[in-house]
Write a structure and sequence with these properties.
Chain lengths: ~325, ~55
């Protein structure tokens, strides 16, 4: 998978992009090519890490596409960028969490396969980390048939805008062999996240997790995804964002509840993570890119974290050694 | 005028009913007990694929 320059490219120098770069700098000495429309922001991020042992250069789009693998950590849509980068012969890791964008990226499977490249779709927090947790929990079961995801918090401003849109959109859920669409903001459920986040009311939202978890584990019969929201979030969801989003959300969390059978008994396992969402997304995206760069992800075409052909346990181990702490819910 | 009176009366009754439910309503305490415990990263991929994790 080593490309023309042997470097890892990162598109996006925002909150998530900077976490991707931080993790790459901290864990490897692979050169980094950084590109952002905001040239000043990209140069500032590069300058912060220039004292380290890693060569980090701010480059134009043409040059970043010469990297062996490019991390798309900018705002959506990623599909048009992915087409351009693929034409220049690089593998990609997309951190997009927008449903239509994710669907368009998945449609590129044949093109990516024809180029003998890899496109990892949704390698962020939710989706991304949820796929790794699903794969990890699956080892505790003989058979799994349900996965229910909940997310609290947002990463950078683009993520906050996506969260706002998701509550106004149509949630997608897989239910006994068919895709069900329900209005975002409905279906309240009190979800407990790992401390210090605690309990939040979560609602259906237009999230990409069900689509990607279904691709990862096709045997699942029921998949839902919810996001935490308060009354103001739901009331203003269908309006334009009235105030600009925060530069970065506070402490976030995600959890996945997996149901299935073990030794003939019905069991439920819940795993979760409490961390800033951009930090989770950055570490997962960077780790996945490193695996593609090292040739440890050998699948060509589009793939998603959690599918059996990927080294999910190894990726999760590296993500956890990158400072993300995993928790499991125990109780009744 | 009559219409406004009716609307106000309906809103008033709804408000009183809502307030009564809010103040006097009882919720069942959750029977669920439990908490979160830290999970260690999988030490070996092969072990992780074949055995359950603590």
């Amino acid at each position: 998978m080593i490309g023309v320059s042997g470097a890892i490219g990162v598109i996006g120098a925002g909150v998530t992009g900077s976490r991707v770069v931080e993790h790459l700098v901290a864990t490897s000495s692979i050169p980094i090519l950084l590109h952002d429309q905001d040239l000043y922001g990209a140069q500032r991020l590069a300058a912060v890490h220039r004292s380290h042992n890693v060569a980090i250069s701010v480059v134009d789009f043409e040059t970043v596409a010469t990297a062996s693998v490019v991390v798309l950590a900018c705002g959506s849509p990623h599909a048009p960028l992915a087409k351009k980068i693929l034409a220049r012969g690089a593998s990609m890791v997309s951190l997009s969490d927008d449903v239509s964008d994710v669907m368009n990226l998945l449609k590129m499977h044949d093109e990516v396969m024809a180029k003998n490249k890899t496109l990892v779709v949704g390698a962020a927090a939710s989706p991304g980390m949820t796929g790794l947790l699903l794969s990890n929990l699956q080892t505790n079961f003989d058979e799994i048939d349900e996965a229910h995801v909940a997310l609290h918090g947002t990463g950078g401003p683009n993520c906050a805008v996506q969260h706002h849109r998701a509550l106004a959109g149509q949630s997608i859920g897989w239910h006994d062999g068919e895709w069900l669409r329900r209005p975002g903001g409905s279906g309240r459920e009190l979800c407990w996240f790992p401390e210090p986040v605690g309990a939040y009311d979560c609602y259906r939202a237009e999230m990409a997790d069900p689509v990607l978890l279904k691709k990862a584990q096709p045997q699942l019969q029921r998949i839902t995804a919810r996001v935490s929201a308060n009354r103001r979030d739901r009331f203003t969801a269908r309006l334009p964002m009235l105030v600009p989003p925060h530069s970065e959300g506070g402490m976030g969390a995600l959890r996945i509840e997996v149901r299935g059978f073990r030794n003939g008994s019905r069991i439920v396992e819940i795993a979760g993570v409490a961390e800033r969402v951009a930090q989770i997304a950055g570490v997962v995206g960077a780790t996945t890119a490193q695996f593609v760069h090292r040739g440890k992800i050998t699948s060509t075409g589009t793939c998603v974290l959690g599918q059996d052909s990927l080294p999910n346990a190894e990726i999760l181990r590296e993500v956890l050694t990158g400072g993300i702490r995993l928790h499991q819910f125990v109780g009744t | 005028m009559n219409f406004i009176r009716r609307v106000l009366m309906v809103l008033g009754i709804a408000g009183i009913a809502g307030a009564l439910l809010r103040v006097r309503g009882k919720s069942e305490p959750s029977s669920q007990r439990g908490g979160w415990r830290p999970l260690n990263p999988p030490t070996d991929p092969l072990t992780n694929q074949t055995s359950s994790q603590n």
